[in-house]
Amino acid sequence: MKPGLTEAIFAYSRPRALAALLRSFRDLDMAEDLFQHACLRAAERWAADGTPRDPTAWLIHVARNAGLDLVRKDRRLSFGDVEAASDASDLAGDPHDDAAEALDRAEYKDDVLRLMFLCCHPDLKRQEQLILALRVIVGLSVGEIARAFVVTPDTMQRRISRAKTRAGTLARVLETPGLTERAERLNTVQTMIYLLFNEGYSASRGDEQIRNALCEEAIRLARLLLSLFPGQAETMGLLALSLFQHARSAARIDAEGGLVSLEDQDRTRWDQAMIQEGRVLIEKALRHGRPGPLQVQAAIAAVHCTAKRAADTDWAEIARLYLALEAIAPSPVVRLNRAVAVSRVTGPAAALDLLMPLAHDLARYRPYHAVRAALLEETGALKAAIKALEAALGCSPTSQEADYLIARITLLREKLAPSIA
User: CB atoms < 10 A from the CB of 280, how many?
Assistant: First the structure.
């Protein structure tokens, strides 16, 4: 099996496996260690014997066996010792045997949602809840989470340590929350699912720009959440937004694996069934008359998805929606996106004025530098645009993003060369 495929399976299986292991052993650090142990076994076994029919069940089965061994031995042995002492029948023979496949899917199918609600325990601060979700459920590194929160890795490491210490204590006594508790934690769970979708939509690491399995898992969880709270408008907005964004996935990467900008995408490849479902959801949500951030973002995505051509996009409406979003949930990133819309309505100069106050807050945010570069290019400031693209390259882009940025830099340097000569 190709290493990249194995890593993709591990990334997809991680949240379900950790959730099941946490439910079994009530120890967050132990769950993470057991999952890592199972991944090491899988890398060794699958290379020789092939991938099992249900990789997630296989990983949970192996991790749970190792955990039971540790419990039986009072955790006195290392994983290496357990490996040698454990019953060989657990893993012997065909990797597709019944033992690895017989794990009751009904037992773990909703564990990720359960884990999300547990991560939203009121004893955890909101930022701790989100950090915990990104680290435990999505499996992002310290540096990747730091970029998501636009802080330094050292600062984020301290925050992760505090969150895990508090969560580790809670995990030993947590029970599945009741309906009232779930309702109280709903907003944070929505945010977690949104972050999970975003990690799939635009991966923060590796050579794979889009991780469809994570997008599909986030959509599944959003559907499940909506089934629990069928009248919740923001959950409708979450699902609609995810569907609008995922509907474009087939057109976002070209035949050579490069990124395709929204304007250049072949819109005939967009999934119209997803778009139609998203439109029904957002229209139903907005009829409630309580627009929240996810609903407004879904409305923005709907404007993009319903334009038959890039030239037909109603940028004035998008600018108005971003202004509304900034009033509801102000942030530097929302202001950045509003600047893009403003540039299409009133020109790049007005948009650059909006970006000026964001330079410090978004200094480590790649899209900020990329947007600024595009606006500077429109004004003819090619040297400044090149510097902005170089700054974007310094913000740890994926390989596809890096290729795109380098191509833009090369093109601008070629444009600049005649004027220098």
Answer: 13
Instruction: Tell me the sheet residues that pair with 419.
Output: none
Highest mean pLDDT: which of 32-46, 72-86, 146-160, 211-225?
32-46
Burial class (CB in 10 A: 0-12, 13-18, 19+), 230: exposed
Domain ranges across the chain: 3-106, 110-230, 231-253+267-313, 363-421
Q: What is the rounded CA–CA span in Å between residue 305 and residue 270?
A: 8
CB burial string 39-70: b at 16+ within 10 A, e below: bebbeebbeeeebbebbbbbbbbbbbbbbbbb
Instruction: Assign 253 to helix, strand or coil.
Output: strand
CA 164, distance to chain mean position in Å, is: 20
Name the amino acid, one letter, at 48.
Answer: A
What tokens does 115 get?
């884990």
Residue that the structure tokens 């029904």 belong to: 280
How is residue 282 annotated by DSSP?
A: H
Q: What is the pLDDT of residues 144-154, one digit of tens each?
A: 788 777 788 89
**Which range scores top for mean pLDDT: 208-217, 224-233, 377-386, 410-419?**
377-386
Q: Is the dihedral of CA 191, 193, 199, 202 positive or negative?
A: negative
What are the tens digits of pLDDT across the range 293-328? 999 999 999 999 999 999 999 999 999 999 999 999
Torsion of CA 73, 75, 77, 83, to 10 degrees: 80
Cα separation, 187 vs 154, whole angstroms: 28
Residue 176: its pLDDT value, please?
Answer: 57
- Tallying the residues shown for the chain, one arrives at 421
pLDDT at 75 over 90: no
Give the per-residue pLDDT at 3: 55
Lookup: tokens for 303: 């404007």
What is the rounded average pLDDT of the residues 57-66? 92
Tell me the two tokens of residue 37: 């142990």
Q: What is the DSSP string of 111-175?
A: HHHHHHHHHT-TTS-HHHHHHHIIIIII---HHHHHHHHTS-HHHHHHHHHHHHHHHHHHHTT--
pTM for this model (two decimals): 0.70
